[in-house]
Write a structure and sequence with these properties.
14 helices; 5-stranded mixed sheet
């Protein structure tokens, strides 16, 4: 299962009874200071505005989110990220999370080219996979702050974690996994007392997108869709709230509204049969796939062969990794976007 392709399909909710059962153990671990696996010094923050007592002038701050608001009284020193890509923005702001979640067994440290230098030799504790969190492991790290922006955190999970730490859940007024990267970056920056730094990161990335749009005004006249296929006869196309679609929209392309109507409520992916592939007959079709086998299978589909986008060679088959192009625009973070732009722009420009 591809990490960048199905984040919206991986929302595994922890049941309320299980949450209630683990909270006692979690609190006990927090009280006794259970063992945390760290190397170097994850979550060490730096602040030019900190006074002699270690309190930053940026605090207290209050961050609103899906489940209310959280006030952070002082600069957090130990941070755990529970959003699938939250660690990128935290790293970009100079902090190494002490804990993070796995994304389809893809280790969130040291693998991707845009984060290797940021992590260095530090390895965060893996405290869950997708939306299944190990409360005991989180508590053992004694976090000052838990961040869950690109996540499907449930209210029960939020309540449990809030009994022993500050929690900034996913943004309000957006579906889970559907908030813009700019908003999630601002939320993280505010929680860390690094508003200005986060704003600068966003401004710089926005400038990168603007430069591409100015260089390629033709993109604005083209309709684009992003898709994937995991097995024969089954295809996925991503809606306007998916990071992959957002990335190409910010490059200047138009998205196809019909895909949004085909997705199930709350999902950022539309599932398509071979008979529905005609909805992907757009000006530019980007397949983000994990193997040449998948590419060959898609191209061999008789109904796909009938599409003009394929016949006129306006479809792109972009690897998820090796090079990590698909992963970069699937993450769509302040760290991965520059890499994604550098890799995808020449491929898109070459399509006539």
């Amino acid at each position: 299962m591809s990490a960048g392709a199905r984040p919206a399909l991986a929302r595994f909710a922890r049941s309320a009874p299980r949450v209630a059962a683990v909270v006692v153990a979690a609190l006990a671990l927090a009280a006794c200071g259970g063992g945390a696996e760290k190397s170097e010094s994850p979550s060490t923050t730096t602040s030019a505005s900190a006074d002699g007592g270690g309190k930053s002038a940026a605090f207290p701050v209050t961050v609103e989110h899906k489940y209310g608001s959280t006030t952070i009284d002082k600069e957090p020193k130990t941070i755990v990220t529970l959003g699938l890509s939250d660690q990128d923005a935290v790293l970009a702001l100079g902090v190494k999370p002490a804990g993070a979640v796995d994304w389809f067994k893809e280790k969130p440290y040291g693998k991707w080219p845009w984060t290797k230098d940021k992590w260095g030799s530090t390895q965060p504790q893996i405290v869950g996979e997708r939306d299944e969190y190990n409360i005991e492991k989180i508590a053992a790290l004694k976090p000052d702050l838990v961040i869950a922006q690109y996540s499907g955190m449930k209210k029960e999970q939020y309540d449990t974690l809030s009994t022993f730490t500050k929690v900034v859940a996913q943004p309000k007024d957006h579906p889970d996994y559907g908030a813009p990267w700019q908003l999630m970056t601002r939320q993280i920056g505010k929680a860390l007392g690094k508003d200005a730094e986060a704003g600068k990161l966003i401004t710089d990335i926005d400038a990168r997108f603007e430069a591409v749009r100015e260089k390629h005004p033709e993109f604005a006249t083209k309709t684009l869709a992003v898709a994937d296929s995991f097995e024969a006869g089954k295809y996925s196309a991503f809606t306007k709230t998916d990071p992959k679609s957002i990335f190409f929209s910010e490059l200047g392309f138009k998205l196809k509204p019909e895909l949004d109507t085909l997705a199930k409520p709350g999902w950022n992916v539309a599932e398509l049969s071979a008979e529905k592939l005609n909805v992907l007959d757009v000006d530019r079709l980007v397949w983000v796939t994990s193997s040449t086998e998948a590419n060959d299978r898609i191209k061999a589909e008789p109904l796909y062969k009938k599409l003009k986008v394929h016949q006129e060679k306006r479809d792109l088959f972009v690897p998820y990794q090796g090079p990590d192009i698909g992963a970069a625009f699937s993450f769509n973070t302040v760290l991965s976007i520059p890499y994604a732009i550098d890799e995808i722009e020449p491929l898109l420009a070459a399509v006539k």
